[in-house]
Amino acid sequence: MFVTHLECTACGLRHEWSRLQNLCTACHKPLFAIVDLAKAGRALTREALATREKSLWRYREVLPLPASVEPVALGEGGTPLLRATKFADDVDLWIKDESLNPTQSFKARGMSVAVSMAKHLGATKLAVPSAGNAGGALAAYAARARLEAHIFMPRDTPRANIIECRELGAHVTLIDGLITDCGAEIARRKADEGWFDMSTLKEPYRIEGKKTLGYELAEQLDWKLPDVILYPTGGGTGLIGMWKAFDEMEVLGWIDRKRPRLFSVQASGCAPIVRAFEAGEKFAAEFPNAHTIASGLRVPKAIGDFLILKILRQSNGGAVAVDDQEIVRVVRDVGSTEGLFVAPEGAACFAALKSLRRAGKIDIGERVVIFNTGSGIKYLDCYAL
């Protein structure tokens, strides 16, 4: 393993990687795992990847977990990058389909790495607030690792997610409120219950699993990043992780300095990043009365808001909100044109593409990648028969 330490994303304070850690002890902001890329680059080359398994663990040298430790894995990563054939005929559109991960969402990436590290560092009980897919992923990987999983979900979480967590052996608590209320309940009880908090960006290793989205995308595009990435944003770990991956790959000499324009896509009923971006703010205020059928986007306050907003501006990208009615309509459009039953979060990105094209923010012929973060199968409650 080539991780040397943890570093605060806000104040820069250094922390040891070898003990269970949540936020920075000084300013309570998220921590990044820092990789010795000079050593990692000598151990792993781009060419060597061709012979490795199609799993996120193919990038093991830039991930945490000592080499002698077996990861908690279910076959995560290695998802297809599909060229769109009909949905948009004026851009070079590609779809990164994360629904083929274990538990049918991109959350498997983060949980595989985070649960592997939590188990290695001695955790026995894991807890997470979840709008759905993160809970399912934690339940699966905790079961695989033989650890307890305690999942707190809003009572109106899609039924499929609740059943999934329970059938995977997790302890599920339903809360009258939002994901922020679930997180607050964990914070109140975790010390007495002996839980390690696995919340988005409140531990440093889920983002390490998510950064493999960036490594995988670059590899699948022959190490040439696209012009534009549209990413559905709740907590924003995937977006932040990809940006971290791009920086790491540049240091490794795998890609050049060119970066995609990143657009954060949210639901109009819960769009704190969009509001903050348009107002020129560095942090995003909590979004009042948050509501959307895209449960993964119903995050009224993200702890990594300052990182998301910084990345959007550095990349010359932006933030777009889409209403629920349009999301539902676009699910069917994508299904009938591309043969993919995408999650509402992914559908929001397809709707955002049309909006951005109309506004002239994406040019004809540009290469665009949309991330479909999960399967529409889990959201059947959103559709009338």
Overview of the molecule:
With 385 residues, the chain is α/β, with parallel strands linked by helices. It has a domain at 81-104 and 206-382: Rossmann fold (3-Layer(aba) Sandwich), CATH 3.40.50.1100. Helices cover 35% and strands 17% of the residues. The protein has helices spanning 37-43, 107-120, 133-145, 159-167, 179-193, 206-210, 212-220, 237-252, 272-279, 305-314, 324-338, 344-358, and strands at 3-8, 14-15, 31-35, 81-83, 92-97, 125-129, 148-154, 171-175, 196-197, 228-232, 261-267, 318-322, 367-372. The strands form three sheets. A six-stranded mixed β-sheet has the order 4-5-13-10-11-12, with helices on both faces. Strands 8-7-6-9 form a four-stranded parallel β-sheet, sandwiched between helices. The chain has a three-stranded antiparallel β-sheet with strand order 2-1-3, with no helix packed on it. The protein is globular and about 50 Å long.
